[in-house]
Amino acid sequence: MEDRSGEKASGTQGAQGVGVDTWKNKDVKPITLAELPVEVAQQVGVSGQCPDACEITLVCAGNIDRDSTLDIWSISTQKRVGPDGQTYDPGEPMPHLDDIAR
Hints:
The chain has one helix and six strands; from the N terminus they run H-E-E-E-E-E-E. The N and C termini lie far apart (30 Å). The relative contact order is 0.14. A hairpin with a 5-residue loop joins strand 4 and strand 5 (87-88). 4% of the residues lie in helices and 28% in strands.
């Protein structure tokens, strides 16, 4: 993860994600892949052989309502079935845990 705890980002070489900007948001806790449910963390990244036969899945996690539960969404270049059983097309955001909607 790219470290955003200082005035300038560090650890950008080889980073596969952008960390929480705790430099600007001092009261926000950083989030790691280890904090995500295993089934979500395992989907993150590139799979297959690029450039012709690969899939990319990105995950966004945050605690925008500042409760004890992370809100987790992902988007991918492949068709997927979500935790709710609904089918999500490529490019369609998929909620893994959206506790704001509850």
